[in-house]
């Protein structure tokens, strides 16, 4: 149908099958799709987080990492990250490196990109159909939100690793 997002289907070892489907439609055994996440850190070690609108199909009304979205059919994860950053926050950045971490979760390959930039969240052009707020948060603040059930429940080890990468060296970007 028009307006539906079409995604490529991959095998469990991340090889393209040559087939596509509508995002979120059921897939067969061993089939996966790709999703990207972008974690933006400032020089104080805080992560920019977004509050998902209540109409989202997954985790409505939850806080999440800076940017997230599906990889459309024909896109690389880097191209999807570039597109999603522009769509969700109004920022231009070309992702030309491998993700900081890639996870093989049930039916999804999750690629996490990490960048550092100092910015004022009030200056962002947020995509109001996807998110309704952004804010800087420390690791402890996010951990509290996960415990309270207001942040997507990422594994604590993943969050620790992302904060580590965000503090020791990432792609620099200045607004």
Question: Descriptors for this entry?
Answer:
five-stranded mixed β-sheet, 175 residues, alpha+beta, globular, single chain
Element-level helix/strand string: EEEEEEHEEEHHE
Low-confidence stretches: none
Intertermini distance: 38 Å
> Largest beta sheet, briefly?
5 strands, mixed
Rg (C-alpha, Å): 16 Å
> How many strand segments?
10
Estimate the mean pLDDT confidence.
Answer: 92
Strand content: 25-35%
Fraction in helix = 10-25%
What is the general shape?
Answer: globular
Number of helices: 3
Structural class, please?
alpha+beta
Q: Mind explaining what this structure looks like?
A:
This protein is α+β, with helices and mostly antiparallel strands. Helix content is 21%, strand content 32%. It is built from 3 helices and 10 strands; from the N terminus they run ββββββαβββααβ. The strands form 3 sheets. Strands 3, 6, 7, 8 and 10 form a 5-stranded mixed beta sheet that branches. It has a 3-stranded antiparallel beta sheet with strand order 5-4-9, covered by helices on one side. A hairpin with a 5-residue loop joins strand 1 and strand 2. The longest helix is centred in the middle third of the chain and has 13 residues. The protein is globular and about 45 Å long. The mean pLDDT is 92.
In short:
This protein has helices at 77-89, 139-148, 156-168, and strands at residues 6-10, 16-22, 33-41, 47-52, 63-64, 67-70, 101-105, 108-116, 131-137, 171-172. With 175 residues, the protein is of the alpha+beta class.
């Amino acid at each position: 149908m028009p307006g539906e997002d079409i995604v490529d289907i991959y095998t469990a070892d991340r090889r393209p099958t040559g087939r596509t489907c509508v995002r979120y439609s059921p897939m067969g055994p061993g089939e996966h799709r790709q999703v990207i996440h972008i974690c933006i850190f400032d020089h104080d070690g805080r992560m920019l987080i977004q509050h998902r609108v209540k109409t989202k199909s997954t985790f409505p009304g939850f806080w999440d990492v800076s940017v997230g979205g599906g990889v459309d059919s024909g896109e690389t994860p880097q191209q999807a990250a570039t597109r999603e950053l522009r769509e969700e926050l109004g920022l231009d950045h070309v992702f030309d490196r491998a993700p900081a971490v890639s996870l093989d979760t049930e039916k999804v390959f999750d690629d996490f990109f990490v960048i550092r930039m100092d910015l004022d969240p009030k200056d962002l052009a947020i995509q109001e159909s996807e998110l309704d707020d952004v804010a800087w948060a420390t690791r402890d603040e996010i951990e509290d939100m996960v415990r309270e059930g207001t942040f997507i429940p990422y594994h604590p080890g993943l969050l620790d690793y992302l904060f580590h990468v965000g503090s020791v060296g990432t792609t620099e970007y200045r607004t």
